[in-house]
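Possible race condition, two jobs.
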Amino acid sequence: MTIITGLSLVQPAVAQLGIEILGGLQLFDAAELEAMSYPPINPDVPALLIQVRDRALVGKMSLLLMSVYPAGHQVALVRAGDDSEPGVEWLPLSDISDSEYVDDRASLYVPPLPLKSSLPALAESVSVLRQPGGCPWDQEQTPQSLREGFLEEAYEVLAALDTGDTENLREELGDLLYHVVMQTRMAAEAGQFTLSDVLAGIEAKLKRRHPHVWGDWQVSNSAQVLRNWEIIKQQEKAGQPKDQTPSALDGILANLPALARSQKIQKKVAGTGFDWPDISGVYDKLAEEVQEVRQATTPEELQLELGDVLFVVANLGLWLNVDAESALREANERFGRRFRQVERLAADRDLTLSVLPFDALDALWEEAKAILAQTTVADTVQDEPS
């Protein structure tokens, strides 16, 4: 038997491209990536996918890679072999399935993105900031000193989600990710855990908590998924030392926003069966609590009774499948837009809000609502495809 060394697709492709690989080159078999939902590619380092053998596979590679790279990212299909004319075709990632260069001797070359875009790159930048010669402010920070900023960035993410501003959302998620990496860096410096520990922990937890995806459990709806999630959480906590009687309320953070925490508490309690039999009981309780607010005579009683009203409102949100925190946040934004419109109307008419009677203020409010409603309709019509 004679063994003949096969022709590698790597050397001809590198030669055709005229690239220097001493700085690093990621090498993948396109067929092995086919079954993945997210490619294990570092966008800071060039990559070469060999054996992009047919259009169906190339189409899958295009969609897979566009979860990391923009659709317009320029890539190269490289044809090299005995039976076809060698050559290189540069084209946008989204168009590679249309290339004539696709065959079983073709490779796909993906250059790095122009800006550093990987998690290791961010971790390196944060590490440099913390080192001598880095940033004095970053060096002075502690896990506790960054708590307020962490929470602020989380709320800014929520604000971007509320407004549907995707560009701002991208930026705010980056700011939040900085805090995550910064906290893990400080923990690593203290010998507590590393970024790898954090990533490994959440990756393992996702698989452990989704046995219907990575196991043999069967589910038919999201409600079953949530019930299984709670069952698995309890199993994970079994055997852990306890200094008090276990409660369904264990694990609910005390520093959550009040409405969000109220709904978490009531959702947990409802899971034990401690809830109204139907929504009519919630409406009756809300009317009862509002009446008690009316009857309160001292500041202490007013605060107590108003708290009860808000608590029942949060429960009503659960029954209506409405997130109370988001609903109130959106109501705040909606009120702000309407009041600014009222101020514009008053300014245009040389009116002073503080001296206007209630009827006039109410009329301005209704006019502002109508104007903003018309603007929203106009924007919707403009966005519709022609």
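Job #2 (started ~2 s after job #1):
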Amino acid sequence: MAGAPPVPADSPRAPAGLLQRVLGFRTIVSTSAGLAFAAVNFLAVLAILGSARGILAPIAILGAGALCMLAVAIFGELNGTLPSAAGIRVWTLRGLGDPFSLAFTLLYLGTVLAVIAADGFVLAAALRAALPAVPGALWILLFLTGALIANLRSVRTAGAVQDLTTYALLAALVLVGLAALRAPGHLPPVPAAWPAGLFGGLALAVFVFMGFEWVTPLAEEVRRPAQMPQGLALAVLLLAVAFGLFALVAGRLPGVAAAGLAPQLTVGRAALGAAGFWIMLGVTVVTAGTTFNGGFVAASRLLYALGRSGFLPAPVGRLNARFVPARALWVLYGVSVALTLLVFATGRYLILINAGAALECAMYVVAALALLGLRRRMPEAPRTWTAPGGRWVPIAAIAVFGGLGIGALLAADNLPLPGVPWTAVLLVALSLGAWRYAALRLRARARERAGRPAPRPQAHGASAPPG
């Protein structure tokens, strides 16, 4: 209407093409914790118990949570400097430059897909243990479709689903864990292997928190982006308490180590009998729901940001009438279904876990390098939050997560020719493909810009598409 005042970008009535600022602090925490709260984490706890026995297992998980606070500090400052749906693309572009930024952003999307596929496999295995008459592939399709529908409705709906599911499963896991502590028949205490056992368990336990930073692409949809660091820190704390308690219980109950792909069901039965079994099955289902739903929320915003900036096909970068990147969601859904069903058919899920863990560690290293680059290139930029400790925090993160990432690349994957590091081979191939695509797209963009006038400045500041 003529003469009407402009609508702010953070208004629920923002014009088409802009995201809506409608999410609160509660959803920051639930999305961050829910993305990391994957069903495969129960298997990770068993691996931790194999190294850090007895009381050292929960200590290792709490220590890993403390290490992840390094990443919290880094992502908090990055988000406080350049809050954007493009997230890692913006930070690496400004801090490290192209084409590395675009190639790594594309590669990082593989982390989301790897965790979704591995979690879908574990979900199907747990449900088949309880309901063997229902095909596992049907469960996978059902839950992925449910996550798609929730995300297509609106970000408010997706956020409400994430709040409900994440906090419900955290409460259920803690309550079952406390009940299991009082269950009879505990094994005698296992001597702790100090210090090698603790260090080995610590390296494994870091992966329990994998993905908590994926909430940062929602920076354009949260009402107060400055609350992102506090939300990340609280999510890491909740994960440390929940899985630390589960590790304490799992290490003291008989039969958990031989429980196959669903140790949580054994813990639930020991704690509360048949009721506990079904409660923990429900926890597994909700866990997969948070991973699928949260993964779709975060990854679709990153795809949308790449599409609106011209680095992916333009339809991916459009919003529908509900302010949702529907095309990006459909792309994610199709790839997730295909990859998850492939993993379910072959049973080869370890390579995805290892690849996801390695990419996640690489993400922390790259984020630390981008932070150092941004401090050097944009020293006067306003920051809503600054990581304490000066250069020591990013330097420590590079050392810690760089070593852990190398370990993930060389971890066992149960594939033929066990002497071959298949995880490293896979990531090298994907990296070369991403680099090639980035180089071709950047050259195409340069030709397009050479033949037309410079684009008009974006009206929404830090949320403008990078590049």
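The mean pLDDT is 80.
Logs attached separately.
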